[in-house]
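User
Here is a favour to ask of a fellow structure person. I am asking you to supply a protein in sequence and structure-token form. Please set it down just below, with no commentary around it:

Assistant
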Amino acid sequence: MHAPGLFDLTDHLARLSAMGDPLEVLERHVDFEALRPVLVAALGYGERPKGGRPPYDAVVMFKVLVLALMHNLSDERMEFLIRDRFSWLRFLGFQIGEPTPDQKTIWLFREKLTQAGVFKALFAAFEAQLCARGYKPTGGQIVDATLVSAPR
């Protein structure tokens, strides 16, 4: 049995990168921060009373929805896979052991965007960024959800 070393996780993630992690490609080609103003306005993030747990970052939660739609996953399955997959933790900016969104949080985030009337517009802006960089977003099952280079 292999005893975990200090750099095992770093080496593991480096191997994923060398194999062409599609989430790193997505991160390079989509400016998620450009969506922040719409997200914050729609969610009403701003001055909050003290107390309670602060909400997860709006851009991180949007990335959660992107992963869910790319892989056609339920909120319950998303909760599990966010904790299970190192590449997803890296894409979302979470550290191992750090709290991650649960299924209710994911559902509530999606509902708030839908009720604010910006859900479809956000994903249209996301897809427009991909298309402008020569990619065609595809979705499907977890085994084959990929970014495919579009013919020019």
Observations:
- Residues 21-45+55-149 form one domain.
- The chain has a mean pLDDT of 86.
